[in-house]
Every structure is written in structure tokens, then in C-alpha cells.
Amino acid sequence: MYIATARQGAVTGGRGRVAGNVLALGLVSLVTDVSSEMVTAVLPLYFVVALGLSPFQFGVLDGLYSGVTAVVRLLGGHVADRRQRRKAVALTGYGLSAVAKLGFLTAASPVALGGVLAVDRTGKGLRTAPRDALISLSSTPETLGRAFGVHRSMDTIGAFLGPLAAMFVLWASLGDYNAVFVTSFCIATLGVVLLAVLVKDNQSKPTPRPPLKTLWHGPFRRTVGWAALLAAVVVGDGFLYLILQQQLKLDPVVFPLLPLGTAAVYLLLSIPLGRLADRLGRWPVYIAGHVALAAAFTLLLTPHTNVFAVLALHGLFYAATDGVLMAAASPLLPAELRTSGLAVLQTGQALAKLVSSVLFGALWTIWGMQTAVLTSLAALGLVLVGACVLRPLSQSQPS
């Protein structure tokens, strides 16, 4: 097993403090998430209501949105490690996602939309692993949970502001979705500029790199497997918001407000749960997040759904899983292959989410929403039992 020291280039400013590079990456993510969440907040309703797609068609596109980047993630991670140019690869990814926002202006058919989403997700696939590798390499092993928690909290501020911006633009433009896409492009461009100016690359000294096959050791292999299995039985955000919209009969202009509840709770809990994961173990916190998600979808089946409780549990799920999983996996990887390893982990999740979205969309289209939710809950419950019993991540805390 590789336990990384993460000392090269770290600018921690003292024990327990978050590195300046982490804060710079957080600012970039904040701005970029305002842009991306503006689009994400309106896409489910845009696809299903404005374009008239079925839940199955939306599931295919939503799966594409998550899973199309599998090969790109691996390639980007490999190039970033081989060239020791993590910032350059991330910059390319952020730039691609920014340009993709303009593609929504002309795409009206499912095929054209799929192409635009593929470009956007290619950008995300390129940037995510290098960004997370820079966070981990700029931090000490003991504070990884806190570092990722701080980054995710800043990222979530953007996720909170994005739907508000989308709602304002829709209101000001009298429901013109193109205005949302243009505004999103402008904000994404600002994020690219901030990355180029503020973030420092973390280049290791030119030493012999371990072969890629050394990544696939027992603890990391089990982490990837169980993370992918859990992702395969988790229902995507878009479906959760569509279910709430149908039950509450929300006006399209108000629809972007739903992600705000998730983002608010995520913002409040990401740092505390990151610190808790550092102290008590990252795998138990990760599992607890999935239990919260199961509770959220259980509430969707009740006669009078409490929308605030559903969104709070949804935010808790993200706060307990997103950065916590990256913090758990990072110490298992050598610094020279950190980006490649995280890319493998994220690719497994992305492919699993693609399968999940397509299957859930098909179940909803054929047998209805309630049957789809019940089936997904049963599958999630079985996988959670296995994950709790087997505890695949034995190295839950940094060594």
C-alpha cells in the first residue's frame, strides 16, 4: 500500500491550516459552479417540459451527463501525472466546459443535446482528477478531510448561487433559457481566468514513476469497487428534483430553487463532516451519507412529502460523501500517480451513474415513479448492508 506524504509544494501555513492553493482552487470552483449550476438547475425542466422528452430520454441524457467522460478521465489523469502538468490539464477541462455552454443555444434535438453534454462532461472529466490531486498534494495526510471539506464548501457556495442566478435570469428574460446559457458561459470564462492566474501547479521532482499497475492494490481496488457499486444504485439529482416538482406542481421559474436546499445543507456540513471523517474514519461517514439519501427517497413515497426534509437529507448525503471519498482514497495512492488513481475512482463512479440514470429512467417510463423509487431503494439497501459488513476501506484514517 502507498501512503502518500503529500509534502511537495504544500503551503499549509501551519499544522491544521488549509493551504493557499486549496483556497485558490476553491475560489475557481465557486465561480465555475455558479455557471454550471445555472445550467444544471434548469436542464431537467428544459428537457422534460420545454423539449417534451420522456423520463427515459431524460435518463439517457442524464446518464450521458455523468458517464460519457470515462475514457477522458483516465487519459487526462495519465497525462497530468506523466507530464506533471496538473494545472494545464485542469485548465483545458474548465475551458471546454465553458465553451459547451454556448452549444445549448442551438441544440434542440436529443442527439444534438447529447453532443453538447458530451463536450461539457469531457471538460469536467479532464479537470476533476487534476484539481483533486492538487488539493491532496497541497495538504498533509492528517488534514485531507478538512481540506476537501473547505474546497467543497466553497464549491457549494457557487452551487447555492447558481440556481438563484438562473431563476433571476429566467425572470428577467421572461423565461428565455438561452439567456441562462449565455450568462453561464460568461461566468465560466471568469473561472478559467482565475485558475490561470491564482492556482499554482504542484510538480513533483523528476523521479522514476511507479508503474500504473501498482495502483490496483487491495485497499484501493476495494474502494473503487464499492464506490462504483454504490453509485450504480443511487438516483441522480435531476430525478429527485423532477419528482418534487411534480408533487408540488412548481412553476418552471421557481424550479431552480430546489437545488438551493441541497446546497445550503451541503455548505453548512461539508467542513464539519470532513473534520469528523478525519477523526472517526472516512468510510463510516461515507456510508452514513448514503443512509441519509435512502431516507430522502423514502420520504418521497409518503403522502405529504416534506420538501425541506428531503432537501436537507440530500445535502447531508453530498456533505458526507463527495470530498470524504476523495480524502479516503488519496492516502492510498503515491504522489506521482495521484491524479491517475483519482481518475480511476471517478471513472468507476461516472460509469455507474450512467447505468443508474438509464435504468431509473426506464423504470419510471414503464412502471411509474413509485415503482422506480422502491426498486432503487431496495437495491441501495442491499448494497449498504454489504458495505457495512465487509468494510472494504480498512485504511479509513490517514496513517
UniProtKB/TrEMBL annotation:
It is found in: Cell membrane. It comes from the Bacteria. It holds the Pfam family MFS_1. The chain crosses the membrane at residues 21-49, 55-76, 156-174, 180-199, 220-241, 253-271, 283-301, 307-329, 350-367, 373-393. Keywords: Membrane, Transmembrane, Transmembrane helix. Residues 21-395 form the Major facilitator superfamily (MFS) profile domain. The keyword Oxidoreductase does not apply. InterPro entries: MFS, MFS_dom, MFS_trans_sf. It is a multi-pass membrane protein. CDD domains: MFS_MJ1317_like (cd17370). This is MFS transporter. The lineage of its organism: Bacteria, Bacillati, Actinomycetota, Actinomycetes, Pseudonocardiales.
